[in-house]
Structures are given as structure tokens and as C-alpha cells.
Amino acid sequence: MTDCDLCGRAIPTVIPVRVFRPLLKFAYPEGVWKGLCETCLESAQKTHLTVDKNNTSCRRSKCALCGDKTGVFPVELQIPDFSKGVVKKDVDVCYRCLKAVDEASIRYKKEQIEQEHAHH
Predict the structure, then answer these.
(1) Cα-Cα-Cα-Cα dihedral of 40, 43, 45, 49, to 10°?
(2) Taking Cα atoms as reference points, which of 79, 50, 78, 47 lies closest to residue 63?
(3) N or C: which end of the chain has fewer CB within 10 A?
(4) C-alpha to C-alpha distance for 28 and 21, rounded to whole angstroms
């Protein structure tokens, strides 16, 4: 079991997303891998698709994935809670990480389609 890096949900496998952490750019110039559950991946991709890349965010905060203090966009998460069922919470994610999530989502969906065809 592993945990989603955004919502903390424990699931058997996560979807890998490559992010570039500014504090680790010399140690890991190729980036580091973060794991997201399917729900967080879809939510972050939806945010990426609604955000205009030319429109920089006026909110400056720390990105939940890479830790960079830059312009961020709110991504709505659905965090499982034993007493309430699901709690909705916004986390801040920078545009660069949103773009990486979008690429990972496209790659994940292609793999899903290929697996569907392999089973038939």
C-alpha cells in the first residue's frame, strides 16, 4: 500500500507524476516522482484545463507537490474521512506541476486503453 501525495489516501498503486523540486534541482535534475490517486489526478487535470497558462495566479503560496513558492491555483480534493464520508479541501498547486499532472493523466489514460484492448 502507498499513500497519495495530495490527499493521503492509502491505495495499492498510485499514478506517478514527475515534478521538479527547486530545493532538489542539483541532486535530482531530472525531477522526482510523486504518486497521486486517480481522484486527485482527475481533479488536478480539471484545474489545469480550466486555467489559462497566460493568466498567472495572483495567489502566491507553496505548491503542494514541488514545494516552490510561486503563483498557485486551487485544486479541490476529496479527502476520505471516516466520520463524514468525504471532506472537500483545496490545496495549492503551481502551473508547472499542473502541466506535469496533465501529461501523467494522458499517459495513464493511454495505458488504460491499451490494457482494455489487450484483454479483448
Answers:
(1) -170
(2) 47
(3) C
(4) 8
Residue 20 neighbours by CB under 8 Å, 6+ apart? 31, 32, 66, 96
Determine how many CB atoms are found less than 10 A away from the CB of residue 15: 20
Those residues whose C-beta lies under 8 Å from the C-beta of residue 84, and which sit 6 or more positions away, are none
Domain boundaries, the chain: 2-119
Residue linked to cell 489559462: 52
pLDDT digits (tens, 9 = 90+) for 11-33: 999 999 999 988 787 888 888 99
Return the DSSP state at 22: G
Nearest residue to 65 via CA among 6, 2, 7, 106? 6
Place of cell 491499451: 114
